[in-house]
C-alpha cells in the first residue's frame, strides 16, 4: 500500500509541474521574451525554496542575460549561470508527447547550459526550469513570470 501511495504522489507532483501553463508550440518572437523575470512558483518538495524565490533573470534584446540568485542556490540546476547568452530553441518532454515545445537555452561563458520551457499560449510567457535528479522520483521546477 505504501508503494502505491508513493507512485500516486509521484504522478501528482509531475502533474503539478504540467499545470503551470500551456506549452508553447509556435516559435515565440524574441521581443516577447525580452524582459525581467521573477519567481512565481517553486515546486513543493524542492530544497531551499525560500532562497530560490529570490531568483531574478534579465533577458536582453542582444541575446545576453543576467541571473541574480541567493548565494545558497547559485549552483542549483534550477538557476542559470550568472550571465551568458540566451536563445530560443525547440525542447522536448513537457507535454509527454513527441511534439516539440519552445523554450530558452541559457549558455554561460564556460559552455554550461540550462533550459527553460516557455509557458502560456500567448505572450507574456512564463519560463519553467525543470530538473529531475538521478534516483529522484519527482521533478523540481522553478516557474518565472515576466515582470511589467
What is the H-and-E element order? HEHEEEEEEE
Structural class: mainly beta
Q: Helix count, per DSSP?
A: 2
**Number of DSSP-assigned strands:** 8
Mean pLDDT: 86
Radius of gyration: 15 Å
| Biggest pleated sheet | 8 strands, antiparallel, barrel
- Quick one: overall form? globular
In whole angstroms, the N-to-C terminal distance is: 48 Å
CATH topology: Lipocalin
Unreliable sequence segments:
4-18
From the 3D coordinates, which CATH architecture would you assign? Beta Barrel
Structure overview:
This protein is mostly beta strands and 148 residues long. The chain has a single domain (2-146), classed as Lipocalin. It is built from 2 helices and 8 strands. Strands 1-2-3-4-5-6-7-8 form an 8-stranded antiparallel beta barrel. A hairpin with an 8-residue loop joins β7 and β8 (140-146). The protein is globular and about 45 Å long. The termini are far apart.
Q: Secondary-structure map with pairings?
A:
Layout: H1 2-18, E1 35-42, H2 49-52, E2 56-59, E3 64-68, E4 83-91, E5 101-108, E6 113-119, E7 126-131, E8 140-146
Antiparallel strand pairs: 1-2, 1-8, 2-3, 3-4, 4-5, 5-6, 6-7, 7-8
How do you describe this structure in short?
With 148 residues, this protein is mostly beta strands.
Can you give keywords for this protein?
single chain; 148 residues; mainly beta; Lipocalin; eight-stranded antiparallel beta barrel; 2 helices; 8 strands; 36% strand
Amino acid at each position: 500500500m505504501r508503494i502505491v501511495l508513493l507512485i500516486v504522489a509521484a504522478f501528482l507532483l509531475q502533474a503539478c509541474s504540467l499545470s503551470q501553463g500551456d506549452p508553447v508550440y509556435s516559435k515565440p518572437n524574441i521581443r516577447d521574451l525580452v524582459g525581467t523575470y521573477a519567481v512565481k512558483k517553486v515546486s513543493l518538495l524542492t530544497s531551499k525554496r525560500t532562497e530560490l524565490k529570490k531568483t531574478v533573470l534579465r533577458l536582453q534584446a542582444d541575446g545576453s542575460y543576467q541571473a541574480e540568485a541567493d548565494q545558497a542556490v547559485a549552483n542549483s540546476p534550477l538557476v542559470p549561470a550568472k550571465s551568458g547568452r540566451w536563445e530560443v530553441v525547440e525542447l522536448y518532454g513537457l507535454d509527454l508527447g513527441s511534439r516539440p515545445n519552445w523554450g530558452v537555452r541559457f549558455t554561460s561563458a564556460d559552455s554550461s547550459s540550462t533550459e527553460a520551457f516557455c509557458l502560456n499560449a500567448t505572450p507574456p510567457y512564463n519560463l519553467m526550469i525543470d530538473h529531475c535528479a538521478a534516483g529522484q522520483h519527482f521533478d523540481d521546477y522553478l516557474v518565472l513570470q515576466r515582470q511589467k
